[in-house]
């Protein structure tokens, strides 16, 4: 799932990592995507723009879609980021302009690196499971890495860490000696953590990273604080471990990474460093879907229907602002 809103906000992002451990709870902003999907947007937010290189976090579902079309996102472009598709229930059919054609299922990593430019679509297949539940996350690409050649990776077998009533699947980076096969461009961590009912354990962390926890089910207690589903608990930096408890069986996504030093301009589905860069990408996409000769993004083979048109640029210039609001 991507940002298909027709009036996207201009967001200037930076990590604003707090020096040391904190416990900062972020409530979601509800966003309607299409006719049948509502998401809870955790990043970027008014309180915090990034966690490491993680710059966009949507949590959706569980939604009953047995009699619905489910996710239906037409072809659209990206630059300067990686998309991470992570399903807890249901399936998503991914197609992109490289020719990738993959159905992503729970426990499988769909990792798309946009780099200098790519287009993709996301749909619930027909037929599909009755429930849809998952998270869509973006990772900002650093420096010159943001213009690498686009690629798509599908990893169905991911490493796991098991200890003391905890089972963690490593999406990106490394946790407890287990490393994901997903290719990354900055020090980062993403893990899907399950806690058995009654579990009480310590989760090892990298002290140079900032971390956050997004609860997707249950009611885990993280550092002594219960984190409800659909909310994000920011933990700051400087932690070597964090205590976990669970009365009911619980599940959360652990996100972390070295604080991202660069400022970003995020607009629609583009992550750039300047308003000019974003405007150029928009013009290129609009030219392509109008039949122009520029093929920076490319068509999505196999998709039946029209691609998404980019929204109008805002009347004020797209440009980075200062680090503080």
Molecular structure report:
Pfam families: Pirin, Pirin_C. Residues 191-286 form the Pirin C-terminal domain. Residues 39-139 form the Pirin N-terminal domain. Keywords: Iron, Metal-binding. InterPro entries: Pirin, Pirin_C_dom, Pirin_N_dom, RmlC-like_jellyroll, RmlC_Cupin_sf. By secondary structure, the protein is mainly β. The protein has a single domain (14-257), classed as Jelly Rolls (Sandwich). 5% of the residues lie in helices and 46% in strands. The chain contains 1 helix and 27 strands. It has one helix at 275-289, and strands spanning 11-13, 21-26, 29-33, 37-43, 54-64, 72-78, 81-89, 92-96, 101-104, 109-113, 118-123, 131-140, 151-155, 160-163, 166-172, 174-175, 178-179, 188-195, 200-204, 210-217, 221-222, 225-226, 232-236, 241-245, 250-257, 264-267, 270-272. The protein has a 7-stranded antiparallel beta sheet with strand order 2-23-20-25-18-15-14, with no helix packed on it. Strand 16 and strand 17 (178-179) form a beta hairpin. The radius of gyration is 19 Å and the shape is globular. The protein starts with 10 loop residues before the first strand and ends in a 36-residue tail after the last helix. The model is unreliable at 321-325 (pLDDT under 50).
Quick rundown:
By secondary structure, the protein is mostly beta strands. It has one domain: Jelly Rolls, CATH 2.60.120.
Cα(first) to Cα(last) distance is 29 Å
Structural class: mainly beta
Strand content: over 45%
Q: Tell me the major beta sheet.
A: 7 strands, antiparallel
What is the H level of CATH, i.e. the homologous superfamily?
Answer: Jelly Rolls
Q: What is the CATH C level class, in words?
A: Mainly Beta
- The CATH topology is what? Jelly Rolls
**Which descriptor suits the 3D outline?**
globular
From N to C, what is the helix and strand string? Answer: EEEEEEEEEEEEEEEEEEEEEEEEEEEH
Number of discrete domains: 1
Cofactor: Fe cation
Organism: Pseudonocardia halophobica
InterPro entries: Pirin, Pirin_C_dom, Pirin_N_dom, RmlC-like_jellyroll, RmlC_Cupin_sf
Keywords: Iron, Metal-binding
């Amino acid at each position: 799932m991507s940002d298909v809103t027709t009036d996207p906000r201009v967001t200037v992002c930076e990590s604003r990592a707090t020096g040391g451990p904190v416990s900062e709870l972020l409530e979601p902003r509800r966003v309607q995507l299409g006719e049948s999907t509502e998401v809870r947007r955790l990043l970027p937010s008014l309180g915090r723009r990034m966690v490491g290189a993680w710059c966009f976090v949507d949590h959706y579902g569980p939604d009953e879609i047995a009699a619905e079309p489910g996710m239906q996102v037409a072809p659209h472009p990206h630059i300067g980021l990686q998309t991470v598709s992570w399903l807890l229930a249901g399936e998503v059919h991914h197609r992109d302009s490289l020719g990738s054609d993959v159905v992503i299922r729970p426990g499988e990593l769909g990792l798309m690196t946009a780099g200098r430019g790519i287009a993709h679509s996301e749909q619930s297949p027909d037929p599909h499971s009755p429930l849809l539940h998952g998270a869509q996350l973006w990772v900002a690409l650093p420096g010159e890495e943001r213009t690498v050649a686009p690629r798509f990776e599908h990893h169905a077998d991911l490493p796991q860490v098991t200890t003391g009533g905890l089972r963690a699947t490593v999406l990106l980076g490394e946790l407890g000696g287990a490393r994901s096969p997903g290719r990354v461009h900055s020090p980062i961590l993403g893990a899907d953590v399950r806690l058995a009912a009654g579990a009480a354990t310590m989760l090892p962390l990298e002290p140079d990273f900032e971390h956050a926890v997004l609860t997707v089910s249950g009611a885990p207690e993280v550092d002594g604080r219960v984190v409800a589903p659909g909310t994000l608990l920011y933990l700051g930096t400087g932690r070597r471990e964090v205590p976990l408890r669970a009365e009911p069986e619980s599940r959360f996504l652990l996100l972390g990474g070295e604080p991202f030093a660069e400022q970003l301009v995020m607009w629609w589905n583009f992550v750039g460093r300047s308003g000019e860069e974003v405007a150029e990408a928009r013009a290129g996409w609009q030219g392509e879907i109008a039949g122009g000769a520029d093929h920076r993004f490319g068509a999505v083979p196999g998709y039946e229907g029209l691609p998404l048109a980019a929204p109008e640029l805002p009347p004020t210039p797209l440009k980075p602002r200062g680090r503080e609001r």
